[in-house]
Amino acid sequence: MSTTTPTAAGIGALTLRPLDPLKDAELLHGWVTHPKSAFWMMQDARLVDVERAYMEIAADEHHHAHIGLHDGVPAFLMERYDPAHRELVGLYEPQPGDVGMHFLVAPTDRPVHGFTRAVITAVMAELFADPATARVVVEPDLGNKAVHALNAAVGFVPEREIQKPEKKALLSFCTREQFEKAVSA
Fold first, then answer.
1. 110: Cβ–Cβ under 8 A, 6 or more apart, which residues?
2. Total-model pTM
3. Angle 2-7-13 from CA coordinates, rounded to 5°
4. What's the alpha-carbon Rg for the chain, to the nearest Å?
5. What is the 3-state secondary structure (H, E, C) of 68-107?
6. 35, 57 contact by CB (below 8 A)
7. What is the C-alpha to C-alpha distance for residues 75 and 14, in angstroms, rounded to an integer?
8. What mean pLDDT value characterizes the chain?
9. Are 123 and 18 in contact (CB under 8 A)?
10. How many other β-carbons are positioned within 10 Å of the β-carbon of residue 2?
11. At 18, which helix (H) or strand (E)?
12. pLDDT average, residue stretch 66-77
């Protein structure tokens, strides 16, 4: 999968490629251990821990990771998972067509205005490009107010707080129609 998603004026091209756990581990290690990535919960991870975590994802039929490229340069991470089998098992009643999603924008010293919103929009467009996807499910940390605002901007509606083993989270959903309405506004 390597799709190009149209983005906001001035942002550039955003594409996705499958993550290679061994080749990309060093890059990811720098991203997930950065202080700006605290909600990713890998602050103390060693390089080998990152390799192992993404090797497990690569071997998992219900979880997939992709590197997002900005004009060909790695700039974000997207994970897609089946919430009936990963992350949310027993915490809500999954519906056919539900897809779970995580995303992380690489920390930078030179932020581009509107970039993170363009990334989440591109991630959502990629997920809904699959006709089998009816609804995207997210479970960000309750304290991550910045991602709650981004989620709302692309159509997510919070349902309720849930307690996961590692965090208290805000379970939220976005249908294809909610996404299309949000991004066309």
1. none
2. 0.89
3. 45
4. 16
5. EEECCEEEEEEEEECCCCCCCCCCCCCCCCEEEEEEEECC
6. no
7. 9
8. 88
9. no
10. 9
11. strand 14-18
12. 94
